[in-house]
Design a protein that fits this description.
single chain, 333 residues, 4 strands, globular
Length: 333
Amino acid sequence: MRRASSTLASSALSRSLLPGGADGCAAVIQHRFVQAALYGSTTSSTSRRLFSTAIASISGRSAKTGSLGIAGALVFVAGSASLLQEANAKEIPSGELVPKDVVLYQYEACPFCNKVKAFLDYYGLPYKVVEVNPISKKEIKWSDYKKVPILVVDGEQLVDSSAIIDKLGEKVRPPQKSTKADPAEDEEKKWRQWVDNHLVHVLSPNIYRNTSEALESFDYITSNGNFSFTEKYTVKYAGAVAMYFVSKNLKKKYNIIDERAALYEAAETWVDALNGREFLGGSKPNLADLAVFGVLRPIRYLRSGKDMAEHTRIGEWYSRMENAVGESSRIKA
């Protein structure tokens, strides 16, 4: 009876984790991507340099002049730091554009769900989270749509991560008045499609590459997912084995010969697309930046994420994205 139960649970989990169309979260249940390197904020060091310069400029003057100079320097430093921080700040919409009630139905490790969360966090939109049990899916039985993410915005159900971001973007971002073709918008659209059609498909074969990496991933899934005590053990071991074999099928489906090489190539392709810019959006992230960052977020603490950070140039951009997106705007229950 126990064996039959494990088999059924494994089968249900595999179906729930397999990619389904444009937004199936399944094959990519992962951890978090390791931050490639530690890059301190430039604000504090820049402030110190500005302050030192200001102090040097007033040396040798009278005490009164010096006092005024120091006071002025402090104001200058504070203002400069404020401007630097503002340059890296989130793009917070005006109050009347912010939805009153946002609820995200998700799997914690789902890359598509994390893509939506990256958007919500960057724009500072407060949201609640409902963790969905991938076996029973009882939390979304009310919906005809049986995949995640599902975002409910002031009572309106939105589905499919890219469609969610488009729809929500229309609500919270000022509309562009220009009717002329915008090369930046075309570039953004191209790379958002690349995320959905290519990048997500190289993740599963990497995080379930072997049994140890599959178990590593399911340690995180069972620790953060919505599982009963019994389900945790069933999912961890039966799920890890199931997804190991699923990942092998995905390799064949997407013609992936070497998992790591495909992951590294994807990371380098993205860095090449930046073409020396801080973000694809220029001085600030655009929707493509947020999409790449979102789907990589769940694997940052996995072996695959660590390897990618070590063997590619993506770390600096990822660190900048962490600083730009900032703290989560999730409302704790």
